Amino acid sequence: MNRNQLDFAVFCIESVAEYLDINGADLYVKLTSDSDILDTYIIPSYEPLHTQGKEYIVDDIVEFMRDEGLVE
Fold first, then answer.
1. Which of 15, 47, 59, 62 is least buried, going by the fewest C-beta atoms within 10 A?
2. Which residues constitute the domain of residue 7?
């Protein structure tokens, strides 16, 4: 993971946590320990996702989390 991907991952975690109204650390656990979404979706999707707006990115990640049964 390079610096840009790391910054993007932090942005995603904090933005989705804010949207879901949960703590960023709790979301990080959902994306790493409870699933592998950070390593298998967010980081690999950096190139197409980082060019999108915040709302699109958050909606995309939340939808993916719903598909995985991590949020309602």
1. 47
2. 3-67
